[in-house]
Amino acid sequence: MADINNINFLLPNKLDEGASKQGNAEKTTDVDFSDLLKNALQDVNSAQVEADEAVQSVLNGETNDIHSTMIALQKADVSLKLMLEVRNKILEAYQEVMRTQL
Q1: % the chain with pLDDT above 90
Q2: For 6, 28, 30, 61, which has the most beta carbons within 10 A of its beta carbon?
């Protein structure tokens, strides 16, 4: 059975989980946005590679587990769509900053 926790790597509460774990020891935590984004991109890429491998194994006849293959494909699809939405929001924010008059 596939681990469903792998698809929630981009959810906003992930920041809260990390902050709450370390928040007791330190009041302020430094969350580097570039590292967070880089890790999210790596997770999306991993989901895509995993889905491709699952499809290839079904096509080669190595496995008949269509259920797990479809789950891997859906995980990859959802994570890619979520990453595209994040990209769109970042671009919108950049364009809004560029329109700001000084």
Answers
A1: 61
A2: 6
Tell me the three state secondary structure of residue 26: coil
- pTM score: 0.64
Measured in whole angstroms, the distance separating CA 3 from the mean position of its chain's CA atoms is 14
Q: What is the dihedral of CA 47, 52, 57, 60, to 10 degrees?
A: 180
pLDDT tens sequence across 29-67: 788 889 999 999 999 999 999 999 999 999 999 989 999
Crossing angle between the packed helical segments 66-99 and 33-59, to the nearest 10 degrees:
150
Residues in Cβ contact with 72 at an 8 Å cutoff, skipping those fewer than 6 apart:
2, 47, 50, 51, 54
